Amino acid sequence: MTSTTSPTAVDATAVVESVAELVRENYVFPDAARQLAELLRRRNAEGAYRTGSGSAEELAEAVTADLRSVNGDLHLALQFHAEPVPPDRGSAVLAAMRRDFDASLGGVPRVELLDGGVAVLEIGPKMFPLDWAAQPLTAALSLVAPARALVLDLRRNTGGDPNTVAFVCGYLLDGRTHLMTMLSRQGAVAEQSWTPPFVPGARFGASKPLYVLTSGKTFSAGEELAYDLQQLGRAEVVGEATRGGAHPRDGWTVHPHLELSVPVARGVSPVSGTNWEGTGVRPDVPCDADAALDRALSLAVARLA
């Protein structure tokens, strides 16, 4: 007999129960966590997640919509992966990121020197884990260090490792600098993010003009890099408001093709006392993302002149 079920068919009831319990136990906002767990269990009992095809992809879309219905947290998601993912905590997103890393020159797909001594450095599509990204980032950031001005392009950067954010900031700031404080579910200080005391290679430094390009797709750790540099007065942000996801997340595999993403901490800037959650990073120079590079270059040339 030929099966009519999807190759990614899933027991929705069991998966949603696992999701509800993981959210209840781990989401950084306990009140919202309880509310979301109750919502998922009620919807599950009502049969809201049973579809005709029984596919994991459809379940992911439906559950994600409900996860975001309470407070709009874009880091809350049930993510579908076409390739089977390992069961270890956090391993699903790392497997997907590794494929992107290998296809993007280690996360620095563009390094270019333009007229007038203005360098353009694109970091994307992710802020890859630092143990992967340190070497290509060191090479790229050292290469642009002698430039008279730097345009840092984050328009296609959709997140990643906060440690990599701190590493990049180490090339663009002088001295050890406090970037972010992470608060736990209980509201206690869980971790602080500082620029490293030493970076390999040459620094661009803290005195030359720096512009950061953003778009409506820039997200998470990509947003943090723009936000940190903006709040510290180090860079002008040029482009569009970003997506607005500020909470560090962790991941749990709940099915061979499904990973639950849950924020487990809350970042607070030592400068602003808050973060960009829900609002996005607001550009200093608003313009369409497609026009952001030209706008930043004109600002750089004018300032250098």
From TrEMBL:
It is an enzyme of class 3 (hydrolase). Pfam families: Peptidase_S41, Peptidase_S41_N. InterPro entries: ClpP/crotonase-like_dom_sf (IPR029045), Tail-specific_protease (IPR005151). Residues 90-288 form the Tail specific protease domain. Keywords: Hydrolase. The keyword GTP-binding does not apply. Transmembrane segments: none annotated. One of its GO terms (biological process) is proteolysis. One of its GO terms (molecular function) is serine-type peptidase activity. Coiled coil: none annotated. The keyword Hydrolase applies. Its EC number is 3.4.-.-. Gene3D superfamilies: 2-enoyl-CoA Hydratase, Chain A, domain 1, 3.30.750.44. This is S41 family peptidase. It comes from Streptomyces sp. Y1. The lineage of its organism: Bacteria, Bacillati, Actinomycetota, Actinomycetes, Kitasatosporales.
